[in-house]
Predict the structure.
Amino acid sequence: MIYEQGDSYVDKEEYDLHTKIKHKVKLLNTEGFEHANVAIYLYKSKNSKEKIENIKAITYNNVGGNLIKSHLLEKDIYTEDYNENTTLVKFTLPNIKEGSVITYSYEVISPFMFKYHGWDFQSDIPKLYSEYKASIPANWLYHTKLVGQEKLDVAESEIKKECLVMRNGATADCGNSTFAMKDIPAFIEEDYMTTKSNYLARIEYELETFRGMDGSIKHYTKTWKSVDKELKSEKEIGKQIRRSVDLEDLLTADIINETDALKKTKAIYQYMQEQYTWNGDYKIFKDVSIKDLIETRSGNVSSINILLHNILREADIDVKPVLLSTRNNGFPTVIYPVISDFNYLIVQATIGDNTYFLDATDKFLTFGEIPFRCLNERGRVIDFKAGSEWLILLQNTQPQPCTSQS
């Protein structure tokens, strides 16, 4: 990558978030041709969506000492529905050869100020220069997070007075920031490494608070105390966790009458492994139903492990659900709650002085083991009474309490 730049700002007329992006890449050999395939992901909700404008792409070739330019045609730009919340726009630079230089630029227009555009400084190819500019009105307060081991070569900020004028005449100042890195090495994945998004150098934004011109305040980033309260009443997780189950409808008399707590817990765990099948779905905040699971004998991660949790609770075992982010999903944010970071749920069972992690989705796991996919540094133990807390996850060991950022 020779050069890339991003520039995000709020439009003065429509108050949408605009991000202009430019890239310049030299294709040294055929292995680099894949970088001429461009994919742009646009977020959409039920009522609104991001859109893209001003796509321009040119391939430059040196032919007999002459610089020949090949322009991307509009008919070669394709749009498709990637999933329910994402639209994919893609194109391929034309007439690429070894030694070609390609440039492409576009502008993303977003109505979603809660999703301020971040920036990836690092990728799987080396970059000579990567720059990102952000202009944020003062009434929008974001957490800004720099991820990765690379250091910024440029980190500048200034206040621009009255950068935004509302229709009622009210004005807002803007914080204008410029971040840049030079000579950025390619990121190389290693064996047994968690997802590369945990390590790639990048800037991320998380909306904390919006202050209206009328003095109103809306908080977006919450405390764990408020998140615990919301989870307790949340229909997919909280209500399912609180549901009672009839042990006599599910378990044999031998298991119900077992007096040794550890033996009973192991028997219930084995019952869940044998009787229910994971459908491969990682959903934890959607389509969670222990009733449907009992009827169909198949369900997602949350349904299976919440049923395990509820059966153990009814059997007088001390249990709590644990929210995780799997290895390929990235580390969960620690300094403030980001519920969307989590994509997995397991069970913590405490018997005497010992604590066990349980996951009934895998029929071949021994008691007290969790899958390798779940070993991603931390888990959040949900306790509706005492409050949730972080734990360090280690395979085949006791969980370690995390004393900070609780």
